[in-house]
């Protein structure tokens, strides 16, 4: 596994950005002092290959019965393709909503009710988008046995949402690992470390201080 190398490069290439005083707003409306733009990983061949290799090994270990790899649009699609290639498995991908033309598909690619699908997304914050993809796949007759991602913030909302869904989740990298690496590397001050740790413990409460 290349965890330390991957985290180091994510930091070095500023794929992860820290801004405690001017927080970022996530799709959920949550405010955060950290932004992780994993879409940028596709521009770094060695980095994306390490990610694909580690995800493939993780999925082979956690979901050995998998017969199809699925990508969650849009950021999860390229990584799912590379992982499917390494595992020599078929691939599908899931749109956010059905097409409004043609056959109106939301799931692209072929699968049967007997297939066991693992969906890949780049990042899990609350888990909402990937769990919607799980529902959409199930609605079309697909059997999603698990979800994986490059990174997860491991927020309380995500833990609760996955617990309710009953879907197994196996991420490659987590926020606590990132925070530990950032602290050890000296890239952040002790004050920034405290901010990042406090946000992670209760992100919604942390964001309230920026409300007008």
TrEMBL record:
Its cofactor is Mg(2+). One of its GO terms (molecular function) is orotate phosphoribosyltransferase activity. InterPro entries: OPRT, Or_phspho_trans_dom, PRTase-like, PRTase_dom. Gene3D superfamilies: 3.40.50.2020. 5-phospho-alpha-D-ribose 1-diphosphate binds at residues 95, 99, 101, 121-129. Keywords: Glycosyltransferase, Magnesium, Pyrimidine biosynthesis, Transferase. Residues 65-146 form the Phosphoribosyltransferase domain. Pfam families: Pribosyltran. It is an enzyme of class 2 (transferase). HAMAP family: PyrE. Belongs to the purine/pyrimidine phosphoribosyltransferase family. PyrE subfamily. Homodimer. Catalyzes the transfer of a ribosyl phosphate group from 5-phosphoribose 1-diphosphate to orotate, leading to the formation of orotidine monophosphate (OMP). This is Orotate phosphoribosyltransferase. It comes from Lactobacillus kitasatonis. The gene is pyrE.
